[in-house]
Amino acid sequence: YTRYGTIVLSIIQGFGIAVGLEKMTGPAGSPVVIAPGWGFRLMTVITLTAGTAFLMWLGEQITERGIGNGISLIIFAGIVARMPAAVVNTVRLMQTGEMGPVTILFIVALMVIVVGCIIYIERAQRRIPVQYPKRVVGRKVYGGQSTHLPLRINTSGVIPPIFASSILMFPLTIAQFMPTTLLDAHPWIEAIIHSLNPGQIAYNVLYVAFIIFFAYFYTAVTFNPVDIADTMKKQGGFIPGIRPGKSTADYIDWVLVRITFIGALYLAAVCVMPTILIQRFNIPFYFGGTALLIVVGVALDTVGQIESHMLVRHYDGFLNRGQIGGRVR
Questions:
Q1: Helices (H), the chain
Q2: Does domain 98-321 bear CATH number 1.10.3370.10?
Q3: pLDDT, tens digit, for every residue of 113-135?
Q4: Alpha carbon of 283 to those of 106, 204, 277: distances in Å?
């Protein structure tokens, strides 16, 4: 169903892109599309849908035969591929005097700080202590160890910003199908559409609200404290000071609600602040928070999976030593 849904969304989005291209004009006022009509729209839909299907298949092949999530790696490659052009444009602006060295240093420092914050929060955990009682089986004693239940601060990952931006882009997509006469007759519609453009105050407020909502929604869908509590109870585990069963589930949910709020605020800050600074300093490239989240998250996940594969094969880990060991333990 996921594949079929992807194809349907590709067809709808491809048709919207085709209609939007037909309405665009060049600097001289001439239309961008020389031969508009249903032929152009059909060709655009088929081309974009076929490309989407190919990328979906390629991502699945990378996931099955390679390391990491294939779709995430493709998105990661697309974002990183734009960085050299952004660096070249920045150097040109500095040479022409349109952007001073102080501004460039500030931008670089800001990006380093944002990346550092992303790495710190993405790896941050709230560890709930869990204990297992000792069991005597025959002449041997099993259990009795203490462990912990790790809860990530950002449990939802990059999903909330993606969902939030998709919902806010929906009215702009609908506006492309509206005739110009309708927009001229109802100026309030055009005012609403303008307020939902990225960078506007209303857009930023709704963006933050949707990010917080989807952070809680996605966490509630993917993480069930009741199942965790039942599994712990069946295995004889318990949280010190908390009764097994419903009390444990309520405690885990209580902790999860609070750390999710911190994670939602972190996502909102990372996604909104770069956009505001881009408009403030007229940065010639877009280093949005969502792109940084994807790049850093995919890099951390891929390195973690490589480390796991190395440990499974009994090789020395290269994260701590800085190199790949070749001697079997």
A1: 2-23, 38-65, 70-81, 83-96, 101-123, 159-176, 180-185, 187-195, 201-222, 225-234, 246-281, 289-312, 318-321
A2: yes
A3: 888 888 888 888 888 888 887 76
A4: 11, 18, 8
Quote the pLDDT of residue 254: 92
Q: What are the start-end ranges of the H helices in 223-288?
A: 225-234, 246-281
Question: pTM of the prediction?
Answer: 0.77
d(CA 241, CA 299): 38
Break the chain into its structural domains and give their ranges. Answer: 98-321
- Contact (CB, 8 A) for 256 and 151: yes
CA distances from 275 to 40, 206, 249 (A): 34, 14, 39
Query: Is the Cβ–Cβ distance between 33 and 19 less than 8 Å?
Result: no
**Identity of residue 186:** H
End-to-end, the C-alpha distance of the chain in Å comes to 45
Residue 176: pLDDT over 80:
no
